[in-house]
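Much of what follows relies on a compact textual record of a protein's fold. The record below shows the convention in full:
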Amino acid sequence: MAQAWSASKAPSATSRKKKAVAFDSSFLIAVMQSPTPWMEDIADIVGAFVPVVLTSVRDELKRLAAKDDKTGKFAGLALELVDLGRLSLVQDGRGKPDDEIISFALNEGAAVATIDSDLAERLRASKVRTVIMLHGGRVST
């Protein structure tokens, strides 16, 4: 899979780079359906962070938002977060979203937020250090 994204500038000796947290579509749709203090919960776990949506995930959200159903409505709300700049859009290699998320997490040392148990299992098997899940409306690792 091609890697179109690149690492951010290296932090200076006096500044500390914020950890990236990549979000998959399942997590974003879930928090749109049942609003929680998920951003604050994640900050409690990883500290200051940059919320990231990869372009393949954005495209998946667009496909879901085009459907005239409940999931489509919540996918559209998640897309609004990207459009408003609340989530940083990062170009990826245009592979399957789960593959791109794993690649990004490994290469950038990023955490990943998902409710997809299959993706979480693949992330842990790939040695991604922080996998953030949603349990009972609250964020946990």
User: Anything to note?
Assistant: Confidence is low (pLDDT under 50) at residues 1-15.
